Amino acid sequence: MTHRAPGTREPVTAGDLAAAVAGSVDALRAGLDADWSVRAGGLEWSCRDTAEHLADDLFCYAAQLGSGITDHPLPLAVAATRPGGSVGSIRAAPDAGPEGLLEIVAACGALLVAVVSTARPGQRGFHVFGAADAVASAAMGILETVVHTHDLAQGLGLAYRPDPDVCARVLARLMPAVDPGDDPWEALLRATGRRGDVGRWRWWNEVS
């Protein structure tokens, strides 16, 4: 049995990531008939752009961790579909509606879950915030999923609130200086600039 110091938390798992992606897709299904061309919360991107960006994040984290390359990003071709849109490798077909976007998010989330689940001990992948091991990659995937689902839910007029315990564990892994307080979800939103400008925010993959 592993003994943890008082106040420490269990690590983020592939199961947590799978649940976060499933929760995101379930919440966003309530907005399938909404206008996905509107801005996603406080972002400059549309809801469609943001969903593609989320899928791209999940795919890229899976690809980077799976590659085991830590000193440079994979040479994936990236592009934006319109001026000012998100830049990425994963794009939905032009005629894909919201249902198609959610299918792509779910599929890319499943890829990251699979890679996190099968990564060998010590395996890491490149990221600008430090080479990420399997736990950090799962935490990154959850962070991207919950904050961008929040953005999408704001734009689409939907209710959304992820598991606060998972949010606390994501903060402990990626942003250990952030106090989760009584509401780790609100703390995560503040730390990522969703409750006012916090400047250039970041996380730390190599802190564990």
Automatic annotation (TrEMBL):
Domain named Mycothiol-dependent maleylpyruvate isomerase metal-binding: residues: 21-153
Protein name: Mycothiol-dependent maleylpyruvate isomerase metal-binding domain-containing protein
Entry superkingdom: Bacteria
Pfam family, one: MDMPI_N
A GO molecular-function annotation: metal ion binding
